[in-house]
Structures are given as structure tokens and as C-alpha cells.
Specification:
By secondary structure, the chain is α+β, with helices and mostly antiparallel strands. It is built from seven helices and 15 strands. The protein folds into two domains: 114 residues, D-amino Acid Aminotransferase, Chain A, domain 1 (2-Layer Sandwich), CATH 3.30.470; 150 residues, D-amino Acid Aminotransferase, Chain A, domain 2 (Alpha-Beta Barrel), CATH 3.20.10. Strands 7, 8, 9, 10, 11, 12, 13, 14 and 15 form a nine-stranded mixed sheet that branches.
Amino acid sequence: MRTWVNGDLLTDPDAPAVAARDHGLTVGDGVFEVVKVVDGRVFAIEPHLERMTRSARGLGLPDPDLDAVRRGVAAVLAGEQLTLGRVRITWTGGLAPLGSDRGDGPSSLVVIGGAMDPWPDTAAVVTVPWPRNERGALAGLKTTSYGENVRALAHARSHGANEAVFANLQGHLCEGTGTNVFYVVDDELRTPTLASGCLAGITRRLILDWYGAREVDEPVEVLAERASEAFLTSTTRDAQAIHRWNDRELGAPGPITTEVRKVWHEREPELLGD
């Protein structure tokens, strides 16, 4: 695993590299992206960088230097032979007082990359009791403030699942801790709208473009009561079938999920860069 911080490639990726007063560390004032690496090539990096810029603006941070980001990505991948890996790019508020106020210094940029194991073919999911706030200041932004997700995923693990899914304040299906959700009702593929408060996932968008689905907001109970199949999407999972939702078993992968995955693997090479 290699780490690049503010222009320098670290010889020891675990050495202290970010100041203790960095606002990303003290209050979670930062945004990030994770980019998949396949056979040494990064997947869909430009949409990720565009979303990172949108998230930074939504949080009130300056735009990240995307050329610097690209240099950092190249640096952590240089000499690595990654069949399957990921690169995490983090952009924070930089040095700041010990509170919510920001400092007036430069932001911090951290890029770290390494190998990853493939996800299992299917996942078990539970709905957690805490809602997403679709009207909150951070709704739809990919920030480093992941405390809710940590708590929710621990809840899911304690219930024998490997992903937690939130409803929003209206009781509508929203998203997982690091995933978007697609499901099938009456042979129709559906997914929540962005107005639900879910993240505008890159994989979500590509599946909508490459395969198609109806964007609709409806009560989260539709998954437990009516869905015949469902799957999770994310940069690292691609389209992962769901075999259990709460206590309900689902066919996994179902026929539509299987077709989506087939289309995905056919189209994925189009967005693999150097």
C-alpha cells in the first residue's frame, strides 16, 4: 500500500503525515472518493473527480487541484501490479482551530492505494432504525463525516448482515452505508431518486445509462414486502445481488440482476483509463 500526501510519496505509508489539527481529523471536515483499479487501470476516474469537486463546493471547501490528484493517483500506482485494487482520495479543510471554525491555510490532499479482495457474489442487508436526513446540509455529498455509517454497519454486523440500509425522514428507501440500492417489483427495475437524499453514485448512474431503471421514491417496506430481487451498487461492489433483506430471503442473483451484471461487465472496459 502506498500513500501520497500533499505532493510527497511516503516511504512508510503508516507514518504520521497529517497534522493533529487538520480539520478533516478533528471534525470530519473533508470529502473523498474511492476509485477502483482493474489490471492496473483506474475505472471512471473523471466522474469521480467531478463529484469530488461538487462535494467540496457543497461543503464549502475550495475546489481540489485535480491535476495534483491525478499526480497522486499515478504516484501510488507506479510500480504496483494490481489485478484488483482501489485508490482513496481525501481532500480536507487543512489546519484549523480546535472547533468547527475553519482555518485560513491550504487544504490537505491525501491519496492512498492498494490491493483489495473482491466482494462476495451476494450480500445480506438489514434496514437500520435511524433515518437519513434528506434535507440536511450534507445530503448527497460524499464527505468524511461517516459516523452514522460506522454505527449503522456495526448494527448490521450484529444482525448477521454485511450492509445496512437507511430510510429517509419520509420513510422512503434511501441508500446503504456505502451503496445505492436497486430492486425489482413486477419485473420493473427501480431505484430511489436523488431527492431521497442518496448519494449520486457513479455505478448507479452508469447502470441507469447502460441498462435503465425507473427512479422512484417509495416506502422502504417495499423491499421487505414486494421486491422479487434486489442488488447493491458501489465503485468496489459493481452490482452485488442481495440474498437476504432483514428476515426475508430473495433469489440471488435474480434474472434482472444477472442481466445487469452481464451488461456491466461488457461495458466496464469503456471507462478503464491508464
